[in-house]
Design goal:
heterodimer, A: alpha+beta, N-terminal domain of TfIIb, three-stranded antiparallel beta sheet, elongated, B: FdhE-like fold, globular
Protein backbone atom coordinates (compact mmCIF):
# COMPACT_ATOMS: atom_id res chain seq x y z
CA UNK A 1 0.00 0.00 0.00
CA UNK A 2 1.36 3.37 -0.98
CA UNK A 3 1.19 5.62 2.06
CA UNK A 4 1.91 9.31 2.21
CA UNK A 5 3.48 10.88 5.27
CA UNK A 6 0.28 12.71 6.07
CA UNK A 7 -1.65 9.46 5.64
CA UNK A 8 0.66 7.67 8.01
CA UNK A 9 0.31 10.40 10.59
CA UNK A 10 -3.46 10.18 10.42
CA UNK A 11 -3.86 6.42 10.67
CA UNK A 12 -1.57 5.74 13.64
CA UNK A 13 -3.71 4.66 16.52
CA UNK A 14 -2.64 6.39 19.69
CA UNK A 15 -4.26 9.60 20.85
CA UNK A 16 -2.24 12.79 20.62
CA UNK A 17 -0.58 11.63 17.42
CA UNK A 18 -0.34 13.54 14.21
CA UNK A 19 -0.92 16.97 15.68
CA UNK A 20 1.53 19.53 14.41
CA UNK A 21 3.30 21.39 17.21
CA UNK A 22 2.63 24.70 15.49
CA UNK A 23 -1.11 23.97 15.87
CA UNK A 24 -0.58 24.50 19.60
CA UNK A 25 1.17 27.82 19.12
CA UNK A 26 4.71 26.55 19.55
CA UNK A 27 7.39 28.60 17.81
CA UNK A 28 9.49 26.13 15.84
CA UNK A 29 11.59 28.86 14.22
CA UNK A 30 14.86 28.02 16.02
CA UNK A 31 14.63 24.30 15.18
CA UNK A 32 13.79 25.03 11.55
CA UNK A 33 16.63 27.56 11.30
CA UNK A 34 19.13 25.10 12.78
CA UNK A 35 17.99 22.29 10.46
CA UNK A 36 18.30 24.65 7.50
CA UNK A 37 21.77 25.71 8.62
CA UNK A 38 22.90 22.06 8.87
CA UNK A 39 21.47 21.37 5.44
CA UNK A 40 23.10 24.41 3.83
CA UNK A 41 26.47 23.68 5.40
CA UNK A 42 26.10 20.05 4.22
CA UNK A 43 26.75 18.84 7.74
CA UNK A 44 24.20 16.06 7.51
CA UNK A 45 26.25 13.05 6.41
CA UNK A 46 25.09 9.72 5.09
CA UNK A 47 26.77 6.61 6.44
CA UNK A 48 26.20 2.90 6.54
CA UNK A 49 27.03 0.13 8.96
CA UNK A 50 28.67 -3.05 7.74
CA UNK A 51 29.22 -6.15 9.85
CA UNK A 52 32.50 -8.01 9.67
CA UNK A 53 34.73 -10.32 11.71
CA UNK A 54 37.88 -9.35 13.58
CA UNK A 55 40.98 -10.70 11.83
CA UNK A 56 43.29 -10.66 14.83
CA UNK A 57 42.91 -14.11 16.31
CA UNK A 58 40.93 -17.31 15.93
CA UNK A 59 38.15 -16.27 18.31
CA UNK A 60 36.35 -14.48 15.46
CA UNK A 61 34.60 -11.60 17.22
CA UNK A 62 31.95 -9.70 15.30
CA UNK A 63 32.45 -6.04 14.44
CA UNK A 64 30.31 -3.25 13.08
CA UNK A 65 32.12 -0.76 10.85
CA UNK A 66 30.63 2.66 10.17
CA UNK A 67 31.47 3.85 6.68
CA UNK A 68 31.01 7.31 5.20
CA UNK A 69 28.82 6.78 2.14
CA UNK A 70 30.50 9.53 0.11
CA UNK A 71 34.18 8.92 0.86
CA UNK A 72 33.87 5.18 1.49
CA UNK A 73 36.15 5.57 4.53
CA UNK A 74 35.59 3.82 7.83
CA UNK A 75 35.17 6.25 10.69
CA UNK A 76 34.22 3.95 13.54
CA UNK A 77 34.60 0.27 14.46
CA UNK A 78 32.84 -1.31 17.42
CA UNK A 79 31.79 -4.72 18.70
CA UNK A 80 28.68 -6.28 17.20
CA UNK A 81 26.22 -6.82 20.09
CA UNK A 82 24.29 -9.38 18.04
CA UNK A 83 27.35 -11.51 17.29
CA UNK A 84 27.15 -14.83 19.18
CA UNK A 85 30.89 -14.95 19.92
CA UNK A 86 31.54 -11.60 21.56
CA UNK A 87 28.04 -10.08 22.07
CA UNK A 88 29.45 -6.61 21.47
CA UNK A 89 32.51 -6.78 23.68
CA UNK A 90 36.04 -6.56 22.34
CA UNK A 91 39.51 -7.24 23.74
CA UNK A 92 42.00 -4.39 23.98
CA UNK A 93 43.32 -5.15 20.51
CA UNK A 94 39.88 -5.33 18.96
CA UNK A 95 38.82 -2.14 20.73
CA UNK A 96 41.79 -0.39 19.11
CA UNK A 97 40.96 -1.78 15.69
CA UNK A 98 40.13 1.60 14.25
CA UNK A 99 43.79 2.58 14.59
CA UNK A 100 44.62 0.00 11.93
CA UNK A 101 42.73 2.00 9.34
CA UNK A 102 44.20 4.80 7.30
CA UNK A 103 42.35 7.25 9.52
CA UNK A 104 45.12 6.77 12.10
CA UNK A 105 47.23 9.89 11.74
CA UNK A 106 50.21 8.22 13.45
CA UNK A 107 50.34 5.38 10.98
CA UNK A 108 53.61 5.28 9.00
CA UNK A 109 53.06 5.83 5.32
CA UNK A 110 56.71 5.79 4.15
CA UNK A 111 59.80 3.77 4.95
CA UNK A 112 61.85 5.49 7.64
CA UNK A 113 65.48 4.50 8.08
CA UNK A 114 67.88 5.34 10.88
CA UNK A 115 71.48 4.40 10.09
CA UNK A 116 73.53 2.57 12.73
CA UNK A 117 74.64 5.19 15.26
CA UNK A 118 72.48 7.78 13.51
CA UNK A 119 70.15 10.20 15.30
CA UNK A 120 67.80 11.13 12.49
CA UNK A 121 65.25 9.25 10.47
CA UNK A 122 65.57 9.32 6.69
CA UNK A 123 62.80 8.60 4.23
CA UNK A 124 63.65 5.72 1.90
CA UNK A 125 61.90 3.93 -0.92
CA UNK A 126 60.58 0.38 -0.73
CA UNK A 127 62.93 -0.50 -3.60
CA UNK A 128 65.79 0.45 -1.33
CA UNK A 129 64.41 -1.08 1.86
CA UNK A 130 63.26 -4.55 0.85
CA UNK A 131 66.51 -5.85 -0.72
CA UNK A 132 68.45 -4.37 2.22
CA UNK A 133 66.25 -6.08 4.82
CA UNK A 134 66.53 -9.35 2.91
CA UNK A 135 70.31 -9.03 2.68
CA UNK A 136 70.75 -8.29 6.40
CA UNK A 137 68.39 -11.08 7.48
CA UNK A 138 70.17 -13.57 5.21
CA UNK A 139 73.61 -12.48 6.43
CA UNK A 140 72.61 -12.65 10.12
CA UNK A 141 70.97 -16.02 9.58
CA UNK A 142 73.95 -17.48 7.69
CA UNK A 143 76.38 -16.17 10.27
CA UNK A 144 74.73 -18.04 13.13
CA UNK A 145 73.38 -21.03 11.26
CA UNK A 146 73.95 -24.35 13.02
CA UNK A 147 73.52 -27.40 10.81
CA UNK A 148 74.37 -30.00 13.49
CA UNK A 149 74.46 -29.75 17.27
CA UNK A 150 77.25 -30.90 19.62
CA UNK A 151 76.00 -34.48 19.44
CA UNK A 152 76.18 -34.39 15.66
CA UNK A 153 72.42 -34.43 15.24
CA UNK A 154 70.93 -32.54 12.28
CA UNK A 155 69.17 -29.41 13.63
CA UNK A 156 69.38 -26.74 10.85
CA UNK A 157 68.75 -23.80 13.15
CA UNK A 158 69.64 -20.12 13.20
CA UNK A 159 70.61 -19.20 16.75
CA UNK A 160 71.73 -15.62 16.22
CA UNK A 161 68.47 -14.23 14.97
CA UNK A 162 65.05 -14.05 16.55
CA UNK A 163 61.61 -13.05 15.32
CA UNK A 164 59.22 -10.92 17.31
CA UNK A 165 55.67 -10.65 16.05
CA UNK A 166 53.33 -7.77 16.62
CA UNK A 167 50.00 -7.31 18.31
CA UNK A 168 48.87 -5.66 15.09
CA UNK A 169 49.10 -8.61 12.73
CA UNK A 170 46.20 -10.82 11.86
CA UNK A 171 45.99 -14.62 11.91
CA UNK A 172 46.93 -15.02 8.24
CA UNK A 173 49.91 -12.67 8.57
CA UNK A 174 51.01 -14.60 11.65
CA UNK A 175 50.97 -17.82 9.62
CA UNK A 176 53.06 -16.23 6.87
CA UNK A 177 55.57 -14.81 9.35
CA UNK A 178 56.06 -18.01 11.28
CA UNK A 179 56.41 -20.02 8.05
CA UNK A 180 59.08 -17.62 6.89
CA UNK A 181 60.84 -17.73 10.28
CA UNK A 182 60.81 -21.55 10.39
CA UNK A 183 62.10 -21.70 6.81
CA UNK A 184 65.06 -19.61 7.90
CA UNK A 185 65.68 -22.04 10.76
CA UNK A 186 64.69 -19.65 13.52
CA UNK A 187 63.89 -21.12 16.89
CA UNK A 188 63.45 -17.91 18.87
CA UNK A 189 60.01 -16.86 17.76
CA UNK A 190 57.58 -14.94 19.86
CA UNK A 191 54.36 -13.15 19.21
CA UNK A 192 51.82 -11.19 21.16
CA UNK A 193 48.79 -13.10 19.98
CA UNK A 194 46.29 -11.82 22.51
CA UNK A 195 46.65 -9.03 24.98
CA UNK B 1 14.38 14.12 49.14
CA UNK B 2 11.45 11.87 48.15
CA UNK B 3 11.50 9.63 45.08
CA UNK B 4 9.21 12.05 43.27
CA UNK B 5 11.37 15.07 44.12
CA UNK B 6 14.46 13.13 43.07
CA UNK B 7 12.89 12.17 39.73
CA UNK B 8 11.78 15.74 39.18
CA UNK B 9 15.24 17.14 39.90
CA UNK B 10 16.81 14.53 37.63
CA UNK B 11 14.46 15.38 34.78
CA UNK B 12 15.19 19.10 35.18
CA UNK B 13 18.92 18.32 35.12
CA UNK B 14 18.60 16.17 32.00
CA UNK B 15 16.62 18.87 30.22
CA UNK B 16 19.29 21.38 31.22
CA UNK B 17 22.00 19.12 29.80
CA UNK B 18 20.18 18.63 26.52
CA UNK B 19 19.52 22.37 26.25
CA UNK B 20 23.21 23.06 26.62
CA UNK B 21 23.93 20.86 23.62
CA UNK B 22 20.80 21.71 21.64
CA UNK B 23 19.63 25.24 22.47
CA UNK B 24 17.58 25.31 19.27
CA UNK B 25 15.14 22.86 20.91
CA UNK B 26 14.47 25.20 23.86
CA UNK B 27 10.86 25.97 22.89
CA UNK B 28 9.99 22.29 22.51
CA UNK B 29 11.71 21.19 25.71
CA UNK B 30 10.30 24.05 27.76
CA UNK B 31 6.81 23.30 26.45
CA UNK B 32 6.98 19.62 27.33
CA UNK B 33 8.87 19.91 30.61
CA UNK B 34 5.80 20.64 32.81
CA UNK B 35 3.94 17.73 31.16
CA UNK B 36 6.85 15.33 31.68
CA UNK B 37 7.25 16.51 35.27
CA UNK B 38 3.57 16.01 35.98
CA UNK B 39 3.61 12.61 34.29
CA UNK B 40 6.49 11.50 36.53
CA UNK B 41 4.62 12.70 39.64
CA UNK B 42 1.34 11.08 38.61
CA UNK B 43 2.92 7.77 37.63
CA UNK B 44 4.14 7.49 41.22
CA UNK B 45 1.05 8.86 42.91
CA UNK B 46 -2.06 7.56 41.15
CA UNK B 47 -3.71 4.38 42.28
CA UNK B 48 -4.77 2.23 39.34
CA UNK B 49 -6.33 -1.17 39.41
CA UNK B 50 -3.31 -3.38 38.94
CA UNK B 51 -3.05 -6.04 36.31
CA UNK B 52 -2.10 -9.41 37.70
CA UNK B 53 1.17 -10.29 35.95
CA UNK B 54 0.22 -13.95 36.11
CA UNK B 55 -2.73 -13.14 33.86
CA UNK B 56 -0.32 -12.38 31.02
CA UNK B 57 0.10 -15.38 28.77
CA UNK B 58 3.87 -15.63 28.44
CA UNK B 59 3.69 -17.94 25.46
CA UNK B 60 1.54 -15.43 23.57
CA UNK B 61 3.92 -12.68 24.61
CA UNK B 62 6.83 -14.77 23.32
CA UNK B 63 4.86 -15.17 20.10
CA UNK B 64 4.79 -11.41 19.59
CA UNK B 65 1.43 -10.46 21.09
CA UNK B 66 1.96 -7.41 23.30
CA UNK B 67 0.32 -7.09 26.69
CA UNK B 68 -2.20 -4.52 25.46
CA UNK B 69 -3.58 -7.13 23.03
CA UNK B 70 -4.07 -9.56 25.88
CA UNK B 71 -5.56 -7.26 28.48
CA UNK B 72 -6.64 -3.61 28.40
CA UNK B 73 -4.12 -1.21 29.88
CA UNK B 74 -6.44 1.81 29.92
CA UNK B 75 -9.61 1.16 31.90
CA UNK B 76 -12.79 3.24 32.27
CA UNK B 77 -12.40 3.07 36.08
CA UNK B 78 -8.92 4.61 36.08
CA UNK B 79 -8.75 7.95 37.95
CA UNK B 80 -9.07 10.06 34.79
CA UNK B 81 -10.63 13.10 36.47
CA UNK B 82 -7.82 13.28 39.03
CA UNK B 83 -5.20 12.90 36.31
CA UNK B 84 -6.73 15.46 33.99
CA UNK B 85 -7.03 18.01 36.82
CA UNK B 86 -3.29 17.67 37.36
CA UNK B 87 -2.36 17.56 33.70
CA UNK B 88 -4.36 20.56 32.46
CA UNK B 89 -2.31 23.18 34.41
CA UNK B 90 0.88 21.51 33.17
CA UNK B 91 -0.24 21.69 29.54
CA UNK B 92 -1.34 25.30 29.97
CA UNK B 93 2.08 26.13 31.40
CA UNK B 94 3.86 24.56 28.42
CA UNK B 95 1.34 25.50 25.73
CA UNK B 96 -0.33 28.77 26.77
CA UNK B 97 -2.12 28.93 23.42
CA UNK B 98 -4.26 26.00 24.55
CA UNK B 99 -5.36 27.70 27.76
CA UNK B 100 -8.86 28.78 26.68
CA UNK B 101 -9.72 25.39 25.16
CA UNK B 102 -8.40 23.44 28.13
CA UNK B 103 -10.36 25.57 30.59
CA UNK B 104 -13.52 24.86 28.59
CA UNK B 105 -12.61 21.19 28.67
CA UNK B 106 -12.06 21.35 32.41
CA UNK B 107 -15.49 22.94 32.84
CA UNK B 108 -17.04 20.24 30.65
CA UNK B 109 -15.46 17.56 32.83
CA UNK B 110 -16.56 19.30 36.03
CA UNK B 111 -20.19 19.71 34.94
CA UNK B 112 -20.41 16.15 33.60
CA UNK B 113 -20.72 17.06 29.89
CA UNK B 114 -17.55 15.07 29.35
CA UNK B 115 -17.10 11.75 31.07
CA UNK B 116 -13.63 10.55 30.26
CA UNK B 117 -14.51 6.97 31.14
CA UNK B 118 -16.84 6.93 28.08
CA UNK B 119 -13.81 7.18 25.82
CA UNK B 120 -12.16 4.13 27.37
CA UNK B 121 -15.41 2.19 27.46
CA UNK B 122 -16.06 2.73 23.75
CA UNK B 123 -14.82 0.22 21.17
CA UNK B 124 -13.72 3.12 18.97
CA UNK B 125 -13.02 6.32 20.86
CA UNK B 126 -12.91 8.66 17.87
CA UNK B 127 -16.69 9.27 17.58
CA UNK B 128 -16.68 10.02 21.32
CA UNK B 129 -13.97 12.65 20.82
CA UNK B 130 -15.89 14.17 17.91
CA UNK B 131 -19.05 14.33 20.04
CA UNK B 132 -17.24 16.07 22.89
CA UNK B 133 -15.58 18.53 20.54
CA UNK B 134 -18.95 19.46 19.08
CA UNK B 135 -20.64 19.67 22.48
CA UNK B 136 -18.22 22.12 24.06
CA UNK B 137 -16.86 23.72 20.86
CA UNK B 138 -13.25 22.78 21.36
CA UNK B 139 -10.90 21.53 18.66
CA UNK B 140 -10.66 17.74 18.69
CA UNK B 141 -6.88 17.98 18.54
CA UNK B 142 -6.89 19.76 21.92
CA UNK B 143 -8.88 16.91 23.51
CA UNK B 144 -6.63 14.42 21.77
CA UNK B 145 -3.54 16.09 23.18
CA UNK B 146 -5.01 16.17 26.68
CA UNK B 147 -5.80 12.45 26.52
CA UNK B 148 -2.28 11.74 25.28
CA UNK B 149 -0.85 13.50 28.32
CA UNK B 150 -3.36 11.82 30.65
CA UNK B 151 -2.69 8.31 29.34
CA UNK B 152 1.06 8.46 29.82
CA UNK B 153 1.12 8.19 33.65
CA UNK B 154 -1.46 5.36 33.62
CA UNK B 155 0.45 3.35 31.04
CA UNK B 156 3.73 3.99 32.81
CA UNK B 157 2.23 3.00 36.15
CA UNK B 158 0.91 -0.29 34.71
CA UNK B 159 4.10 -0.94 32.75
CA UNK B 160 6.13 -0.74 35.96
CA UNK B 161 4.03 -3.45 37.59
CA UNK B 162 4.61 -5.67 34.56
CA UNK B 163 8.32 -4.92 34.31
CA UNK B 164 9.44 -8.36 35.47
CA UNK B 165 7.21 -10.11 32.92
CA UNK B 166 8.33 -7.76 30.17
CA UNK B 167 12.04 -7.95 30.89
CA UNK B 168 12.08 -11.76 31.05
CA UNK B 169 9.91 -12.33 28.00
CA UNK B 170 12.81 -12.51 25.53
CA UNK B 171 10.97 -9.96 23.38
CA UNK B 172 12.65 -9.56 20.00
CA UNK B 173 10.11 -7.53 18.04
CA UNK B 174 10.39 -3.96 16.87
CA UNK B 175 7.21 -2.81 18.63
CA UNK B 176 6.68 -2.36 22.34
CA UNK B 177 5.86 -5.57 24.24
CA UNK B 178 3.67 -3.58 26.61
CA UNK B 179 1.57 -1.16 24.57
CA UNK B 180 2.37 -2.31 21.02
CA UNK B 181 3.66 1.09 19.86
CA UNK B 182 6.66 1.39 17.56
CA UNK B 183 9.75 3.03 19.10
CA UNK B 184 10.13 6.78 19.03
CA UNK B 185 13.84 6.85 19.77
CA UNK B 186 16.74 4.40 20.15
CA UNK B 187 19.80 4.60 22.36
CA UNK B 188 23.06 2.81 21.57
CA UNK B 189 25.25 2.31 24.59
CA UNK B 190 28.94 3.05 24.64
CA UNK B 191 30.73 0.07 26.15
CA UNK B 192 28.63 -2.77 24.77
CA UNK B 193 26.98 -1.07 21.81
CA UNK B 194 23.54 -2.64 22.13
CA UNK B 195 20.58 -0.82 20.66
CA UNK B 196 17.75 -0.15 23.09
CA UNK B 197 14.44 1.01 21.71
CA UNK B 198 12.24 3.34 23.71
CA UNK B 199 8.47 3.56 23.65
CA UNK B 200 7.34 7.09 24.41
CA UNK B 201 3.80 5.94 25.06
CA UNK B 202 4.38 3.69 28.09
CA UNK B 203 8.06 4.36 28.74
CA UNK B 204 9.29 0.80 28.15
CA UNK B 205 12.82 0.16 26.85
CA UNK B 206 13.78 -3.08 25.16
CA UNK B 207 16.85 -4.38 23.42
CA UNK B 208 16.68 -4.88 19.67
CA UNK B 209 19.01 -6.04 16.94
CA UNK B 210 21.10 -3.38 15.23
CA UNK B 211 20.80 -5.10 11.87
CA UNK B 212 17.01 -5.22 11.72
CA UNK B 213 14.51 -2.48 10.96
CA UNK B 214 12.13 -2.27 13.95
CA UNK B 215 9.30 -1.27 11.65
CA UNK B 216 9.43 -3.80 8.78
CA UNK B 217 11.93 -6.31 10.28
CA UNK B 218 14.09 -6.18 7.14
CA UNK B 219 17.55 -7.52 7.91
CA UNK B 220 20.59 -5.99 6.31
CA UNK B 221 24.03 -7.17 7.35
CA UNK B 222 25.86 -5.35 4.59
CA UNK B 223 24.17 -2.00 4.50
CA UNK B 224 22.39 -0.36 7.36
CA UNK B 225 22.23 3.28 6.36
CA UNK B 226 21.94 6.20 8.70
CA UNK B 227 22.48 9.93 8.80
CA UNK B 228 24.51 11.83 11.33
CA UNK B 229 25.43 15.44 11.98
CA UNK B 230 29.08 16.11 11.23
CA UNK B 231 30.90 16.96 14.43
CA UNK B 232 28.02 15.58 16.51
CA UNK B 233 28.28 11.89 15.80
CA UNK B 234 26.03 11.04 18.76
CA UNK B 235 23.08 12.47 16.88
CA UNK B 236 21.96 9.98 14.28
CA UNK B 237 18.87 8.84 12.43
CA UNK B 238 18.79 5.24 11.25
CA UNK B 239 16.81 4.77 8.08
CA UNK B 240 15.29 1.76 6.40
CA UNK B 241 15.64 1.72 2.63
CA UNK B 242 12.78 -0.77 2.44
CA UNK B 243 9.96 0.87 4.42
CA UNK B 244 11.33 4.43 4.21
CA UNK B 245 11.06 5.02 7.94
CA UNK B 246 13.62 6.63 10.21
CA UNK B 247 14.42 6.26 13.88
CA UNK B 248 16.13 8.99 15.85
CA UNK B 249 19.06 7.37 17.61
CA UNK B 250 21.45 8.61 20.24
CA UNK B 251 24.72 6.89 19.51
CA UNK B 252 27.26 5.81 22.11
CA UNK B 253 25.63 7.23 25.15
CA UNK B 254 27.76 6.77 28.26
CA UNK B 255 26.56 3.81 30.29
CA UNK B 256 26.63 5.87 33.47
CA UNK B 257 25.06 8.95 31.96
CA UNK B 258 21.55 9.71 33.18
CA UNK B 259 19.22 10.09 30.26
CA UNK B 260 15.55 10.34 29.51
CA UNK B 261 15.08 9.08 25.93
CA UNK B 262 12.09 11.37 25.34
CA UNK B 263 14.12 14.41 26.36
CA UNK B 264 17.00 13.31 24.14
CA UNK B 265 14.60 12.86 21.23
CA UNK B 266 13.14 16.34 21.71
CA UNK B 267 16.65 17.75 21.67
CA UNK B 268 17.12 16.18 18.23
CA UNK B 269 13.97 17.57 16.64
CA UNK B 270 16.15 19.13 13.92
CA UNK B 271 16.97 15.60 12.71
CA UNK B 272 13.26 14.78 12.59
CA UNK B 273 12.77 17.82 10.39
CA UNK B 274 15.65 16.92 8.09
CA UNK B 275 14.58 13.29 7.74
CA UNK B 276 11.01 14.28 6.95
CA UNK B 277 12.30 16.77 4.37
CA UNK B 278 14.17 13.87 2.76
CA UNK B 279 10.91 11.97 2.44
CA UNK B 280 11.24 9.56 5.35
CA UNK B 281 8.51 8.91 7.89
CA UNK B 282 9.03 8.57 11.62
CA UNK B 283 8.58 5.02 12.91
CA UNK B 284 5.93 6.36 15.18
CA UNK B 285 4.36 9.73 15.60
CA UNK B 286 5.17 11.27 18.93
CA UNK B 287 3.79 14.52 20.26
CA UNK B 288 6.97 16.35 19.26
CA UNK B 289 7.85 15.07 15.80
CA UNK B 290 5.07 16.51 13.65
CA UNK B 291 5.88 19.98 12.40
CA UNK B 292 3.43 20.94 9.65
Amino acid sequence: MEMTRRGFLIVTGAVGSGVALSTFGLDLGPVRAYAEELDKAKRLKAAKQVTTVCCYCSVGCGLICSVDKVTGKIFNIEGDPEHPINEGSLCAKGAGFFDLTEANKYRLRKVLYRAPGGMDWEEKSWDWAIPRIARLVKDARDKGFVARNAKGELVNRAETIAHLGSSNVDSEECWLMVTKARALGMVYIDHQARV
Amino acid sequence: MTDIEGASARLAREIGNVLERNPQSRNILQAFEPILQEKARLAERIVCKQIDPSAIDRSRLAGGIPVIRQTPLLLPEDPWEEIVRAVIPAIIQGFPALRAELLVLQKGIDDGTIRLSDFYRAQDGHPVLARWAAAIVVRQVAIDFLLWAAEKPVLENRRRTLQEVLSTSGWDRGYCPCCGELPSVAVIHEKIPQRWLHCSRCGHDWRFSRTLCPCCARESQREMPYFFVEGREQETAFICASCKRYLITVNHIGDLEEHDPDVLAMGMAHLDLLMQQKGFLPMTVSAWNVFD
